[in-house]
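TA notes, week 10

Several of you asked for a full example with nothing omitted. So below is the full record: structure tokens for the whole chain, then the designed sequence directly under it. When grading your own attempts, check the secondary structure regions first.
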């Protein structure tokens, strides 16, 4: 099996509801996301996937939907005031943990046609979560 990995950097804010720790407060991260794509056979260019295609598809989606936005649980009391102020948000059905964000990006990359096998999101330089199917 062949595999390639593309790194995508983005920034986001979030907070965790029903959580007893410092992450219950709004805060932000400079995240790094690794998208790993696989194939059993190289294409006619001898590639798993073109890094530019991965960037265009996945980074394009991240830039539109997550980058420089507050990622919040849909019932977070901050949603309405931030929307009223015109602030950019992305709503999830669950707490926006780094694990949940990794799965979200994985699902979107698959929906965009990539044979993704792993997404890792580095929330800090020393902490990350991975979703593998």
């Amino acid at each position: 099996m062949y595999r390639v990995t593309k790194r995508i950097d983005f920034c986001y804010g979030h907070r965790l509801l029903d959580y007893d720790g410092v992450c219950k407060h709004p805060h932000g991260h400079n995240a790094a996301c690794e998208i790993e794509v696989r194939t059993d056979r190289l294409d006619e260019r001898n590639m798993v996937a073109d890094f530019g295609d991965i960037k265009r598809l996945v980074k394009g989606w991240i830039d539109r939907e997550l980058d420089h936005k507050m990622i919040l649980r849909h019932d977070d009391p901050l949603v309405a005031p931030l929307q009223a102020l015109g602030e950019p948000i992305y709503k999830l059905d669950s707490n926006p943990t780094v694990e949940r964000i990794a799965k979200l990006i994985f699902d979107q990359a698959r929906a965009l046609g990539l044979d993704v096998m792993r997404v890792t999101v580095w929330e800090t330089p020393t902490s990350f979560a991975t979703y593998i199917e």
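DSSP finds three helices and six strands in the chain. Use that as a sanity check on your answer.
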